[in-house]
Amino acid sequence: MKKNKGKIYLSFLILFSAVYLVWRIGWTIPTDHGALSVILSLILLITELVGAFEMFVHFYISAWSPAEEPSKPTKINGRMPDVDVFVPTYGEPTELLRNTLTACLSMHYDNPERVHIYLCDDADREEMRILADELGVKYFSRRNGKNAKAGNLNAAMAKTGSPLIAVFDADMCPHPDFLMETVPYFLEANGSVSRRIGFVQTPQSFRNADLFQSAFRAECIIPNEQDYFYRSLEPARNRTNSVIFGGSNTLLSRRALQSAGGFTEGTLTEDFATGIEIQKKGYRCLAIAKELADGLSPESLSAMIRQRSRWARGCIQSGRKTRILTGRGLSFVQRVSYLSAVGYWYNPIKRLVYLLAPISFAVFGVTVMRCNFQQMLIFWLPMYLLAVLGIRFFSGGVRTAKWSDIYDICMFPFLLLPVIGETLGFSKRRFVVTDKSGKKGWSALYLLPFLILIALSVIGIIKTVSLTLMQNSTNYLLLLFWLIFNLYELLFAFVFVCSCGKLPASRCESGFVHDLGGDKVLKTNLLSIILRILFQKKSK
Fold it and tell me: Which residues of 59-93 are buried (b: 16+ CB within 10 A; e: fewer)?
């Protein structure tokens, strides 16, 4: 039933989007307002076209093909295959690694002697060697750290030989049932390891509240930022075989890895590139929604900025390196899916365009669209409402359009230069481990871009209201709505950055936030968040 509703919804979205874009291209370019207006109008139009493409791909994956859980064999003949468990580390605290390795040792398996756990130390630290001896796990070390995490994992592959490889980041603790839930996907009816399955990706869940939950004092109200990706989008990619390898909480086929040339080196996101290379070789890759490991979200804004900058740069690098548009081995649908995944990281540029477009006219008098209020109601509003309602419907309430926009707008100033720089060829190759201690920094300069945009939006609102009253016209009502809407989201971002500067991350006491219904997300408005920050005691 939901699948049929999704198809109907997507059909209407395509129809109304096509009508809107035809109107935008044919009738709204302000050719009679000078060269600057035309240039800015074309920039906005191109941004909208790219956004429409990404929206279509996004909803095609989730609407046309709702999350599909692959079937897991229930009867296993013979002994379970050997599994190598790699825990790569580079400078993380000893106690953090102790927790992860202890969790690895606690995993259940029908043949426990066939589970081989390796601490892969890329910093050659004596304390890691002592920890491995203490816990009874094997220890690998490298001195040069060449090719970062990918090089570390490839070095471990060269010294081991099990047909299956599990990878966990230093902070990601597997649940006891991780292997028993994932290994069966690789087994044939006779108990042999499948030659068809490349990897099984499980969600990355977290023991602590993420920065957004913590900053807004909404740990038990809004889901973790990553939930939508791992619970909704990843399982939906099973049908198109475009599941993204997340780099941790994953079980991989050694045969598939070897066929792809090992973990892909020369990119900051070796996981994203490796997954594409495995799928190029014809392997089926799966994602399941059941959480089988949990770790730590970044607990400082500076750490999150470094992490997201690395992801953004790495995905752009991986897109080039794997040649997702021209390289052999990918289907058309896979290429489009991965192109959209890379395109997501260009949201900072799109966000800047959407923020500056109404300001350019309201504050500086530069026209970017030639239209009136009635035309926008007819051509734009139906498409906009369908897009807003669609995110909530297809995410099962885990995500709404409002929170997607807020997540993007909070991070866009910090990702803008890395994305532009990487696109222009100013690549960053040095892999920096994400700090999870929450000790490193915050700067008042983080507030500057939001303060500037808030001030310009307020000036624009005042001038637009004046124009509306003086001319007694409805032509500026949509512009006024656009400015107020942007101001509302900018205030969210301002509150977020302020809160990150003075409030440590806290943990939801009532359990994992992803178990909460989507309705509670919609009830979280700016006023309630400000009041919660001012008057609610911090969770312990």
Answer: bbbbbbbbbeeeebeeeeeeebbbbbbbbbbbebe
